[in-house]
């Protein structure tokens, strides 16, 4: 189950994916388009900068996002997350590679088609909100509809719907500067939802908010995702946020994806020290399922304990395991795969914060 | 050994090297004085000025024949002239076979009051109306209306050209790169230089004056508009793109609305620049307040000059306050609430009715049409001012003349001797050397080439006379500017006190300073220096104060914690830390001083400015006037390059 650095299936674009990215590059600097495919492409980012003056902000990134999935991209500041997500919508023109959206090639789309995609198929939420200061909340939200020629009544009706959806009732006629940061980002969310896009891109949407508001907003996104089932690409540098929201997580370093997998896979088997460092502060019991600590029954142990499903998070299983006072059966599809005891849970919790596994 | 090392180390310091160059310069200038000074009597032409004169004559001769005139210059002139005439017909020129314009004084006051109320608030509106009324009281109503018409016309035309170009330059790097050299040049070109060439192509009169004004103010509109677009917060713009806006939608729905405030500031700046130029453009036949100012300067009539100058001041304050208040309203995107809006609508309705009544009255009632003569006090003010000026010159003689002679004998004469009485090659080499020390090879080569070109114009000696005045005035401006700037920068209270003075100082046209300066110091070179000082001081104070204020407070706190005295904090922390601002202030000061010192040709300062003015009135010296304009331009570029290199800023121009 170890997540490989680049999965072999990633060589061919997957038409069934909501988004399919292959060998995407973005190089900033003089003669940037000569770098990809040349020997210099293999240099490290620092060496490349030294020898050519170019920055490889995104290097050879490939991944698929399934319909309805929340795909999180994370990495330290400067690792290329923002550049990557902007390449997907061509706010930044990629240097090389391909991006398919529902099977359609985004990078070769004509300017008119690209505008249409932006108006209807995908939308974006920004770290610093990017609201239009001269427009009321409702006109901010209705902007994409307005530029798409939707009549005023229709677009206000739709805007009012999403205003309700994100909990901004009563603020339609306020101006952005009259709202708190959290409320402004609700406007940002509402604006992105207004066109009912297939895919939403969120670039560190909550980094500028304080922790309490951030938690509210994360819950909001989870709720919206639950209700609306949008495909999301979510950028963050906050691991707990990534774990909370992500179906799958890609970790970037110096422009490249170093590991990709479910939260559990990352925590269970970090690909390298960089990833291990990242996940060190995450309590493993909050991420891992009981599969990770299931083991065979040892001689002399009681085999009559209660059953739990193999996909249960350790933290959620803890009351049962401790309450049972004997080994608990771990069941996958009706088949017994192993046992866990409270000692196993304690050992897992105890390994947190010591060193990598 | 150690002493050799220290000497070497000291020699490596730039300031020491510059000091040595200056020392050598002084010694050599003394030894070689009187040689190769290239003195040229005013009435004499050089080969170059003769060529220019012939060129000018042939241009004049071609006006009715050459295609360039028939298809380019003349149509432009006709269009601009009729545009201005339309505005003048409304407020200043007798309309039809009537003796008054379409709208009499009361109507104009009411229109101004209404517009200012509609765009800002009633208090500013009252102020604007009061100031216009005062222009009438001064007996300057018709002149004021002419200046207003010229200014508004030039501003409308300038914005029609400048705003679109500015937006374009804001959106496209290539367009900005094409425009930038012109914009940079326009920043250092003294106003006086524009006049003669334009009069040559567009004839003396309103058209040439308006076009010259436009050439002066369009770069300002372009610069600020482009800056407004470029400095927009990137977030909303990116969001606009990400939602699929077309370029046009992005411009009209995102960028322009967001840039509105800064662009409005640009309109204010454009307007003030246009006003100040329109006044000076009286020299090439612009109607308006500039005419009585020029007339008074020529016959050195302080009283009349002050009356006309006051009207300029009132008009300037009116335009500045009105546009500033209107700009302030664009500062927030939040619109006022329902009740306030209703109240305002009612107010606007009432004001509109009042305006219409006033306009109607001003067309049918004599007292409302022509400013009532019994209210006019211009002559009284003029004679009172003349008397006061007389009193000052006789009784405060020791003060004004004392100071004047102190500066003139103590500093100006020696410097002028050093620059103008020395061989030209010595001066060129020394200035280029200093340029090299301050700005490196490029500044040195620029200085050398341009100074050599000045020698070729034949106006070397006059250039040096002007340069001496410019340098002395700049030094005085910097001394006072730094002292006051530090005070203003350190204390909020002083800043509050000084702000109105600085604001007023920055909005007044350079021309009006000539009158009081003439009253105080008589027609002398020092009058030009004083004028340059008054004109440049506000900007220098402002730049220095900004610099001092921007010194991180942590630095000041650290120094205070270390037990520094106030004086130590100023000299050891705040001034060194704001060195860039000081140099910037010096650069600005130099350029401002140059612009005004040449105008000082009017008040007996001699030099290049005098030649420009003489060239304007004597056809046989027209070539010399044009050459003097060129020499001013070259001198300006040399000074700007060296000072700019000193300030260490290369790609300037985004900041307004
Ligand atoms: N327009 C640009 N020109 C040159 N280099 C750029 C440009 N934009 C980004 N970069 C470089 O690309 C790299 C990745 O930047 P990016 O903004 O994508 O990082 P990030 O992961 O989003 O960081 P953060 O968490 O700080 O937002 C950085 O080294 C940055 O300096
Ligand atoms: Mg980023």
Automatic annotation (TrEMBL), chain A:
<dbReference type="Pfam" id="PF00005">
    <property type="entry name" value="ABC_tran"/>
</dbReference>
<dbReference type="InterPro" id="IPR017871">
    <property type="entry name" value="ABC_transporter-like_CS"/>
</dbReference>
<dbReference type="InterPro" id="IPR027417">
    <property type="entry name" value="P-loop_NTPase"/>
</dbReference>
<comment type="similarity">
    <text>Belongs to the ABC transporter superfamily.</text>
</comment>
<keyword id="KW-0547">Nucleotide-binding</keyword>
<dbReference type="GO" id="GO:0005524">
    <property type="term" value="F:ATP binding"/>
</dbReference>
<dbReference type="GO" id="GO:0016020">
    <property type="term" value="C:membrane"/>
</dbReference>
<dbReference type="GO" id="GO:0006950">
    <property type="term" value="P:response to stress"/>
</dbReference>
<keyword id="KW-0067">ATP-binding</keyword>
<dbReference type="GO" id="GO:0031460">
    <property type="term" value="P:glycine betaine transport"/>
</dbReference>
<keyword id="KW-0813">Transport</keyword>
<dbReference type="InterPro" id="IPR051921">
    <property type="entry name" value="ABC_osmolyte_uptake_ATP-bind"/>
</dbReference>
<dbReference type="GO" id="GO:0016887">
    <property type="term" value="F:ATP hydrolysis activity"/>
</dbReference>
<dbReference type="InterPro" id="IPR003593">
    <property type="entry name" value="AAA+_ATPase"/>
</dbReference>
<dbReference type="InterPro" id="IPR003439">
    <property type="entry name" value="ABC_transporter-like_ATP-bd"/>
</dbReference>
<protein>
    <submittedName>
        <fullName>Unannotated protein</fullName>
    </submittedName>
</protein>
<dbReference type="InterPro" id="IPR005892">
    <property type="entry name" value="Gly-betaine_transp_ATP-bd"/>
</dbReference>
<feature type="domain" description="ABC transporter">
    <location>
        <begin position="43"/>
        <end position="279"/>
    </location>
</feature>
UniProtKB/TrEMBL annotation, chain B:
<keyword id="KW-0812">Transmembrane</keyword>
<dbReference type="InterPro" id="IPR035906">
    <property type="entry name" value="MetI-like_sf"/>
</dbReference>
<dbReference type="GO" id="GO:0031460">
    <property type="term" value="P:glycine betaine transport"/>
</dbReference>
<keyword id="KW-1133">Transmembrane helix</keyword>
<dbReference type="GO" id="GO:0015871">
    <property type="term" value="P:choline transport"/>
</dbReference>
<feature type="domain" description="ABC transmembrane type-1">
    <location>
        <begin position="463"/>
        <end position="643"/>
    </location>
</feature>
<feature type="transmembrane region" description="Helical">
    <location>
        <begin position="150"/>
        <end position="171"/>
    </location>
</feature>
<feature type="transmembrane region" description="Helical">
    <location>
        <begin position="191"/>
        <end position="216"/>
    </location>
</feature>
<dbReference type="GO" id="GO:0005275">
    <property type="term" value="F:amine transmembrane transporter activity"/>
</dbReference>
<dbReference type="GO" id="GO:0043190">
    <property type="term" value="C:ATP-binding cassette (ABC) transporter complex"/>
</dbReference>
<protein>
    <submittedName>
        <fullName>Unannotated protein</fullName>
    </submittedName>
</protein>
<dbReference type="InterPro" id="IPR000515">
    <property type="entry name" value="MetI-like"/>
</dbReference>
<dbReference type="Pfam" id="PF00528">
    <property type="entry name" value="BPD_transp_1"/>
</dbReference>
<keyword id="KW-1003">Cell membrane</keyword>
<feature type="transmembrane region" description="Helical">
    <location>
        <begin position="527"/>
        <end position="545"/>
    </location>
</feature>
<feature type="transmembrane region" description="Helical">
    <location>
        <begin position="443"/>
        <end position="460"/>
    </location>
</feature>
<feature type="transmembrane region" description="Helical">
    <location>
        <begin position="124"/>
        <end position="143"/>
    </location>
</feature>
<feature type="transmembrane region" description="Helical">
    <location>
        <begin position="501"/>
        <end position="521"/>
    </location>
</feature>
<feature type="transmembrane region" description="Helical">
    <location>
        <begin position="263"/>
        <end position="285"/>
    </location>
</feature>
<feature type="transmembrane region" description="Helical">
    <location>
        <begin position="589"/>
        <end position="613"/>
    </location>
</feature>
<feature type="transmembrane region" description="Helical">
    <location>
        <begin position="297"/>
        <end position="319"/>
    </location>
</feature>
<feature type="transmembrane region" description="Helical">
    <location>
        <begin position="422"/>
        <end position="438"/>
    </location>
</feature>
